[in-house]
Amino acid sequence: MNSLKLSVQNLSKSFADLKVLDNINLSIKNGEFVSIIGPSGCGKSTLFNIISGVEIQSKGEIFIDGVECKKRKGETGYMPQNPSLLPWATVEENITLGLQIKKQPVKIAKKRAEDLLKEFGLFEFAKNYPATLSGGMKQRVALLRTILFHDDFLLLDEPFGALDALTRTTLQIWLMRVWRKTKSSILFITHDISEAVLLSDRIYVMTQRPATIIKEVKVFLPRPRKLENLTRPNAVKIESQLIELLFNKNEIE
Amino acid sequence: MKLNSIKNYFPSIILSAVILFVWQGIIQFGLINKYILPAPSAVFLAFVQNLYVIIIHTIQTLKEAMIGLFISVIFGVLVAIILDRASLVRKTIYPILVTSQTIPLIALAPLLLIWFGFGDLPKIIIVVLFCFFPIAVSTSSGFAKTDQNLIKLLKSMNATDIQIFSKVKFPGALPQFFAGLKIAATYSITGAIFGEYVGAYQGLGIYLQQMAHAYAIDVVFAVIFVSAILSIALFCLVLFLEKFFTPWYQE
Ligand SMILES: Nc1ncnc2c1ncn2[C@@H]1O[C@H](COP(=O)(O)OP(=O)(O)OP(=O)(O)O)[C@@H](O)[C@H]1O
Ligand SMILES: [Mg+2]
């Protein structure tokens, strides 16, 4: 169970003469929840675009399940930063998008969507169009869509970034519940330090562009976690360590 | 829903009624000669008296307009898809498309008549020239506005180009397509009548010309009225199709 889901080695990426990622190394174990935290515009989304196969790296290798993986499209459940739902499709149709792409039989897809929606409390919205949903609901739907496509390896790019604080907290707790069921390996981008501490087993801290990983922080907090855990001395210590890493390093420049 | 839409049109119905009423009064009191401007009642009478002939011509015009519109939809959407495929193609075709719209149809119509005769074909061509442009331009801007995040998402799912088109691009462009089709639908009747006016065996256009030459102004007005009703009817048909095919889209 301790084998690696993902291993990124010496990864670099430039756009024309803009160097975005510089020699990134990171890994996730199976079933692990790992966050990446870093300043705005440093290249976090670019990293996910590369891991998911939407973009191609300039240098470096990516291993999935221990095998070097060059064509990675379809190998991850990628929830991009703006995980638009299809406005013309109902919640149910949106959730089964990935299964439609994989050309799974409609009946099976519908059944799986139904089970998932029921399990995570969204079944009453199955026939709704996205325009009728709140921001938090849309993110839940987008998450379930990602999970239904690929439940064992998720790339979540700031899924809660645009939500208000209250909704965000609700969704963080909801995500932990989902994750306990799916046991997915998750790579999670966030701007939010306490979010990273609440959710993660490990946190990678990135620098300004060209981004490198300056630190890997382990979060030793018992699971299942609760919000109150964030006030424990251990958690507070990690948070202040992260603040120091993010701000000192970046302000010197 | 129904009630609401009637309520929406209420002011314009009232206004139309008032205009008709005033118009009738002006003629009745002899303020304008009725051979120059016939009263609404006279127009209605002319409509009823010539109903059979008008229906026959209307069917002809409607046929040309519908066929032309149908071809325009296929052609317009096809052009939009081609424009969307590659920027080189776009750069090559777009200016030609726009230029095609600057050709005065009044010059082209007699030529078409010489080339293709008095049958349906030259009229259908004119309808297509009127109609395909708004459909092509509108649909193409619909494709261009596709949400790039959705395309990224589908790519990460290893979707094929055809899947990206059918799941994202096509449904996303539907509202724009219908916006273009609405314009095209109203043009189509006018286009067909224009084509017939230059020369035809049958149709509202040639009938209009004959009646004008015979100074049957009340009939001319009746035909104008019929063509307006046809345009509105086609427009409403498109509205209905739009509601049906894009139920998620609220203006
Ligand atoms: N396709 C592209 N072509 C050129 N430059 C790009 C491209 N994609 C991203 N960039 C640039 O790369 C840099 C990193 O972008 P990226 O979106 O990965 O940052 P980010 O860390 O996700 O930012 P944020 O925190 O705002 O989400 C930015 O300066 C961006 O302008
Ligand atoms: Mg980003």
Could you give the topology of this structure?
The complex is a heterodimer of chains A (about 250) and B (about 250).
Chain A lengths: L3 E12 L2 E12 L3 E5 L6 H8 L7 E6 L2 E2 L8 E3 L11 H5 L1 H5 L4 H14 L15 H15 L3 E5 L7 H18 L2 E6 L2 H7 L2 E5 L6 E6 L14 H19 L2
Chain B lengths: L1 H27 L11 H10 L1 H35 L1 H14 L4 H12 L3 H25 L3 H9 L4 H38 L5 H10 L3 H29 L6
Helix pairs in contact in B: 2-10, 3-4, 3-6, 3-8, 5-6, 6-8, 8-9, 8-10, 9-10
The structure holds adenosine-5'-triphosphate and magnesium ion.
Adenosine-5'-triphosphate binds next to β2 and α1 of chain A.
Please provide a written account of the structure.
The complex is a heterodimer of chains A (253) and B (251). Chain A is α/β, with parallel strands linked by helices and 253 residues long. Chain A folds into 2 domains: 4-76 and 152-252, Rossmann fold (3-Layer(aba) Sandwich), CATH 3.40.50.300; 81-149, no CATH class. Chain A is built from 8 helices and 10 strands. In chain A, a hairpin with a 2-residue loop joins strand 4 and strand 5 (67-68). The longest helix of chain A has 19 residues, at 233-251. The model of chain A has no long low-confidence stretch (mean pLDDT 90). By secondary structure, chain B is mainly alpha-helical. Helix content of chain B is 83%, strand content 0%. The longest helix of chain B has 38 residues, at 161-198. Chains A and B meet through helix 3 of A and helix 7 and helix 8 of B. Bound molecules: adenosine-5'-triphosphate (ATP) and magnesium ion. Adenosine-5'-triphosphate is lined by residues 15, 18, 20, 40-46, 81 of chain A. Magnesium ion (MG) is lined by residues 44-45, 81, 157 of chain A.
